[in-house]
Design a protein that fits this description.
Elements lengths: L4 H14 L6 E8 L6 E7 L6 H14 L2 E2 L2 E2 L4 H13 L2 H21 L6 H25 L5 H30 L5 H28 L7 H32 L18 H12 L1 H16 L7 E2 L11 H10 L10 E6 L6 H12 L4 E10 L4 E8 L6 H20 L3 E5 L1 H35 L3 H27 L6 E2 L2 H31 L1 H28 L7 H17 L1
Parallel strand pairs: 5-10
Antiparallel strand pairs: 1-2, 3-4, 6-8, 6-9, 7-8
C-alpha cells in the first residue's frame, strides 16, 4: 500500500533527526519511490569508514530506527552499512578460526603419527610463532595508529598453522628416518636438522618474500596483506628452526610413543617406491599425462568473470543485504550507492546552465536519475548526484562510470570548467584498474623472487624455470577448477576480482615449498646414488610426508569456509585445490 501521511511524517522526522546533531552525518535528504510505497533517506556520513567512531555512528542510526517505524520496514544499507556488517563478521573471526584450525591440525597429526605426544610439538612451535607475530603486529598497529585488515589476520591464522606444521612434518619425518639408523637420539636429531634446515629455511623465506611482493601493489587491500602474512611466516619459520628442534631434543624417542622408531627398522615405504619407480621408468610420459590433465582443468579459466559487488559477498542475510533487497523493490539499484559529480566552473553558472548540465548527465548511458545537490565556492563548484539503473557494484556499472566521466568532462569543458566523478562506484572502477595493474606487476615480481631463491638453493638455472612452470600450470588448473566448482556447485555467477592474485601468491609460494622439499632431497640422494636412483629414493622417502603436508595445508585453508564471505570461501577452495594438485 502507498505510504500514508502519518508514515511520511515519521520519515521526515527521521530526516530531521539525522541532520540535528547525529555525528558524523553531514546531510540527509528524503526521496520517495515512484510507486509511492517506499522512501529512501540519503544520509551523507563523514569520517573514515574503517574507524570505530564511524561504525558506532552507523550502529546508532540502526538503533534509533530499529526494524520498524510506523508499521514500515526499515533497514540501514549503503556503503556505510556494508562496511559495518563486514566488520561485524570479522570481529571474532580470528578466535573461531584459531580454535577450528588447531583442532583440525591436531586431529590430522594424531591420525598421521598415531602418537598422543608428537602432534603437540609442531602445534606448540607454530602457536608460539603465531602469538609472537600477533603481538608484534598489535604493537606496531598501536604505535602507528593503523588498523590491521580483518581478512589478513584471518588468513594469517590459516597460513601459519598450515605452512608451519608442514615445516615440522619435514623435520620430524627425517628425524624418524635417522632414529632408525642411529642409536643416540640427539645425534639423529642433529643429522635430521642438518639435512633439512636449508630446505625449511628456503621454503619459509620463499613464502615470506612472495607475500611481501604485495607491497609492490598500489591497491591498499593488497598491500595490507603483505606485512601481516610476511612477518607471521618469518616468525613461525624461526620458531620451527629453534623451538621445534629443542622440544624434540627434550622428548627424544619418547616423542613417538607408543610407536617409537628403533634402530634397524625398515625406512622405505613400498607404495611410494613403486610410484617412484614407475615415474622414473617413463618420465616423459608421466609428465605429459599430468600436464595434459592440468591443461584441461585450466580451461575453466576461460569462464572467468570478475565480481565487484559487495552485496553479493555475504553468504548470510546481513542487515545491509536486507536493505539492498528492500531498496530494489522500489528504487533503481544504483540508489544503494549514488555517484557524485563535481564540476568546477570559472564563474558561477546561471540556473539554465545548471539545468543543461543536469540534462546531459541524465542522458549518460546507464543513468536512472541525476540532479543538482548544492554549490560551494561562491557558486563556482557544482555538486550533482547520479543514480545508476543497475547494481552500482556490477561490472557494467564500472564501465558506465567511464562513460559518465567522459560526459561530465565534455560538458564541463564546454564552459571552461573541469569535472570529477566520485562515489563508491567510481572508487570501485579505479580499484579495478589498479587491481589489473597490480596483478600483472606482483605476479612478475613474485616469479622473479621465487626463481632467484630456487636458483640459489639448487645452484642451477634451468631447473628453477621448469619448477616455476609447473607452479604456474597448477595455479591455472586450480583457478579453472575453482571457477567451475563455484559456478556449477554453488551457483555463483562470478568470483571476486581479487581471487586470481591472492591464489597466485599463495600457490606459487606454497607450491614452491613442495618443490624445494623434494628437489633438495633429490640433490642429496643423487650425490650418493646417481640421478635416477637418487630420485627414486627421494620420492620414496618424501612422498608420504609431502602428501600429509598437503592434506594438512589444504585442510587448514578449508577452515575459511566457516566464514560467511564469498571472498574467503573462494580463496579457501582455490588454495586447497592448488595445494592438493601440487602434492
Amino acid at each position: 500500500a502507498p505510504l500514508t501521511a502519518e508514515q511520511k511524517q515519521a520519515i521526515e522526522a527521521g530526516e530531521t533527526w539525522l541532520t540535528s546533531g547525529v555525528e558524523p552525518v553531514n546531510s540527509a535528504r528524503v526521496e520517495y519511490s515512484d510507486d509511492g510505497k517506499g522512501a529512501l533517506i540519503f544520509a551523507s556520513l563523514g569520517g573514515t569508514p574503517g574507524e570505530v567512531s564511524f561504525r558506532e555512528s552507523v550502529q546508532s542510526i540502526r538503533d534509533h530506527f530499529g526494524d520498524t517505524v510506523a508499521d514500515m520496514e526499515v533497514r540501514v544499507t549503503g556503503p556505510g552499512g556494508l562496511i559495518t556488517d563486514v566488520y561485524e563478521i570479522f570481529l571474532n573471526a580470528d578466535v573461531k578460526l584459531l580454535v577450528g584450525t588447531v583442532i583440525l591440525v591436531l586431529v590430522l597429526l594424531l591420525v598421521i603419527y598415531r602418537s598422543p605426544v608428537l602432534p603437540f610439538v609442531p602445534l606448540l612451535a607454530v602457536g608460539f610463532g603465531y602469538f609472537v607475530a600477533g603481538g608484534i603486529l598489535a604493537l606496531v598497529a598501536t604505535a602507528t595508529g593503523t588498523t590491521l585488515s580483518g581478512q589478513a589476520t584471518s588468513l594469517m591464522v590459516i597460513l601459519l598453522f598450515g605452512a608451519g606444521t608442514d615445516y615440522g612434518l619435514l623435520l620430524i619425518a627425517r628425524y624418524r628416518e635417522e632414529l632408525r639408523r642411529e642409536r643416540d637420539a640427539r645425534v639423529a636429531l642433529a643429522t635430521a636438522l642438518g639435512e633439512t634446515w636449508e630446505a625449511i629455511a628456503a621454503s619459509g623465506l620463499t613464502v615470506t618474500l612472495a607475500v611481501l611482493t604485495l607491497l609492490f601493489a598500489r591497491y591498499g587491500d593488497y598491500r595490507s596483506f603483505a606485512p601481516v602474512l610476511g612477518l607471521g611466516v618469518f616468525v613461525t619459520l624461526i620458531a620451527g628452526l629453534t623451538l621445534m628442534p629443542a622440544l624434540l631434543a627434550l622428548l627424544g624417542r619418547r616423542a613417538f610413543w607408543p610407536r617409537m622408531p628403533r634402530r634397524g627398522d625398515a625406512t622405505e615405504h613400498r607404495t611410494w617406491r613403486r610410484i617412484a619407480e614407475t615415474v622414473a621408468a617413463a618420465p616423459r610420459r608421466s609428465a605429459a599425462i599430468v600436464a595434459a590433465i592440468l591443461v584441461v582443468l585450466a580451461l575453466g579459466v576461460t569462464l572467468y568473470s570478475p565480481r565487484f559487488s559487495f552485496t553479493e559477498d555475504f553468504l548470510k542475510d546481513m542487515p545491509s543485504k536486507q536493505g539492498y533487497a528492500l531498496l530494489e523493490r522500489h528504487f533503481p539499484k544504483g540508489a544503494l550507492a549514488p555517484t557524485t559529480v563535481l564540476i568546477k566552473a570559472p564563474e558561477a553558472p546561471p540556473e539554465p546552465v545548471i539545468g543543461m548540465i543536469t540534462g546531459a548527465l541524465n542522458e549518460a548511458p546507464g543513468v536512472a536519475a541525476a540532479f543538482p545537490t548544492g554549490t560551494a565556492d561562491e557558486g563556482k563548484l557544482l555538486s550533482f548526484q547520479v543514480i545508476l539503473e543497475g547494481d552500482p557494484y556490477s561490472k557494467e556499472a564500472l564501465q558506465q562510470i567511464r562513460e559518465l566521466r567522459e560526459v561530465a568532462r565534455e560538458t564541463a569543458a564546454a564552459g571552461g570548467g573541469v569535472a570529477l566523478v566520485g562515489g563508491p562506484t567510481a572508487i570501485q572502477a579505479d580499484t579495478w584498474a589498479l587491481s589489473n595493474r597490480d596483478t600483472l606487476l606482483v605476479a612478475v615480481v613474485a616469479l622473479v623472487v621465487v626463481g632467484v631463491i630456487l636458483a640459489v638453493l639448487l645452484r642451477a638455472l634451468v631447473a628453477p624455470f621448469y619448477l616455476l612452470l609447473t607452479n604456474v600450470l597448477s595455479y591455472l588448473a586450480a583457478l579453472g577448477l575453482t571457477i567451475v566448482i563455484t559456478e556449477v556447485l554453488f551457483g555463483w555467477e562470478r568470483i571476486s576480482y581479487r581471487i586470481p592474485l591472492y591464489m597466485f601468491i599463495f600457490l606459487v609460494a606454497l607450491g614452491s615449498d613442495y618443490n624445494i622439499f623434494i628437489t633438495t632431497r633429490i640433490r642429496s640422494e643423487a650425490l650418493r646414488h646417481g640421478l635416477r636412483d637418487g630420485t627414486v629414493k627421494a620420492v620414496t622417502a618424501t612422498g608420504g610426508v609431502l602428501t600429509s603436508a598437503g592434506i594438512i595445508l589444504a585442510g587448514t585453508f578449508l577452515i575459511l569456509l566457516s566464514q560467511p564471505v564469498k571472498d574467503l570461501a573462494e580463496i579457501s577452495i582455490g588454495v586447497a585445490l592448488g595445494v592438493l594438485i601440487d602434492t
